[in-house]
Amino acid sequence: MAQVWFLAAIWVGLALIAVLLAIKLRISTALSEIVVGTVAQLIIGASVGTAFLGAQQSWVTFLAGAGAIVLTFLAGIELDPIVFRKHWKEAIVIGFISFLTPFLGCTAVAYFVLGWPPRASWLVGVALSTTSVAVVYAVMLELGLNTTMFGKTILAACFVTDLGTVIALGLIFAPFTIRTAVFVGVSVLVFAILPWLTPRFFKRYSNRVSELEAKYLLLLLFGMGGLAAWADSEAVLPAYLIGMVLAGTVGKDHILIRRLRTLTFGLLTPFYFIRAGSFVSLPALVRAPFVFLVFLIAKTLTKFMGVYPLTKVFNYERKEGIYTTLLMSTGLTFGTISALFGLSHGIITQDQYSYIVATVIASAVIPTVIANAFFLPRHLLPKTITEPDREAATTGAPESA
Amino acid sequence: MLRIILVAFDGSEQSRSAFDLGLEIAAKFNAKLLVVGIISLPEPAISVEIDAMLDHGKTHFAEEFAQLAEKAKEAGVPFETEVGVGHPAEHILRYAEDNHADMIVMGRRGLTRVTRWILGSVSERVMRYAHCPVTVVK
Asked: 0.80 exceeded by the pTM?
């Protein structure tokens, strides 16, 4: 038992180092944790042995997996159902095409250009099909576009893209057996019941110090996650869908979300991202840097081929169209989740995992830099946010202008 | 003629000194004081972190601005606040332009040359691109 505590201390120590680095360098904690995990594994592996960090230990795997599940749930719960209902056609079409073209394009590049095996190629397609809702949201917040219908529609489209990624991850690599049928059947039932049951249950029993709501949600997430794993699918798939179906109810309980966020951010996600980083092989990246460049170009180009023409169909101006497309070329969380899924299930090798994660990280940064530098649709930026616009942003009511 | 003075505030000692100077100038010129706080998001962000920083930032600025409001009230200076999200220099410049500020007052941290090269200096960027005079307080 002493060994477990010491190992836990090392992991939390690495998380602390990552936070300090993130504060100093003003980067996200997630990125810092991935980098710290990579470097730690390199140093510890070289000096003590690759197994010392214990990334494959069951309790580390559990905490990391729980981090991915709750993080995905919190991502799904950010969906704005009012905007989605209002602009569902635009959001679904842009979001789906934004998923499909890089999914097929990057798969093809991995298979035909780099000669990767079929399953690994499909995994590349899934990992690089994502759009980072958080990156898009951060940019929208900065520019005030999150209060405009343009911004909200793009955000809704991002959810659709990630939904495509999560479904593809959950179903492509799962062998279609009776277990899959049971998983799908139970999932449909649960998603249908939850929006009705959850608010009633919370209304009856909530607002107690025993954190009933958090336990209820974790029961759902772990239970459905277990069912997904039993069906050889991926636990984050039901987590994302549960988040989306509860976005209109639980998503509005800001205090509950904040408590879940503390649990996730404070304990779980460091294990997830440090573990993800610990599997990245720097020697592999140094040996063949062009692989990650090929993937980065493939992801960006395929997003362009899919999304940009659609922006014309919906009458976006040129700058708006390119800006939208570049933002939707970003990706971080689901990309790393997909890559880690592939590595854990023997679909990809560690070297292939390293190329994918490096591409995912680069895709979170480079397209936004280019978008903000050259294609910012300034005419959409609100000069000042008036009180009616603030109210509209909160209630989803039509804006004043 | 100074009518609107914009103070960039982040809670640091330097920004408090900048506020005090801005308040003094505003009082002498019968100007309005506009205090701007910027919540700077990490890059690349994840959703959980963004929401946490927004919550923390709003609470932080609400508490700080309440204290500043007291000081402005005692000095009899008209006082407004804004909280923005994103890159500090860009927002300071934009608020100054949008509100037709006649002067910007801001603090400056003592970054090392290397840190300044990697991260950039907010005060230097504002000084370079501002449409109005900028006073930097160390």
From this structure: yes
Are the beta carbons of B51 and A257 separated by less than 8 Å? yes
* Chain A hits for B46, Cβ within 8 Å: 28-30, 71, 132, 134, 269, 332-333
Complex confidence, ipTM: 0.74
- pLDDT, tens digit only, all 401 positions of chain A: 888 999 999 999 999 999 999 888 878 888 899 999 999 998 988 888 777 888 888 999 999 999 999 988 988 888 878 878 888 888 898 889 889 999 999 999 999 999 999 999 999 999 999 888 887 887 777 777 777 877 888 888 888 998 899 889 888 887 788 998 999 999 999 999 999 999 888 888 876 677 888 899 999 999 999 999 898 888 888 999 999 899 888 878 888 888 888 888 888 999 999 999 999 999 898 988 889 899 999 998 998 888 888 778 777 778 778 887 887 788 888 899 999 999 998 999 999 999 999 999 888 888 877 877 777 665 555 554 433 444 443 433 333 33
| Strand blocks (E) in A21-147 | none
Domain that holds residue B76: 4-137
Query: Residue B49 and residue A28: Cβ atoms within 8 Å?
Result: yes
- Closest partner residue to A28 (CB to CB) among B43, B86, B87 is B43
Rg (CA), chain A: 21
Q: Domain of B62: which CATH number?
A: 3.40.50.620
Helices (H), A206-315: 212-230, 236-245, 254-263, 269-278, 282-287, 289-313
Which of A28, A79, A253 is the mutation pick for testing B, counting most B CBs within 10 A? Answer: A28
Name the residue ranges covered by the structural domains of chain A: 9-42+63-395
Among the four given CATH numbers 1.10.8.870, 3.30.420.110, 1.20.1530.20, 3.30.2130.10, the one describing domain A9-42+63-395 = 1.20.1530.20
Amino acid at A293: L
B31: DSSP letter = -
Contact B98 A384 (CB under 8 A): yes
Contact A31, B44 (CB under 8 A): yes
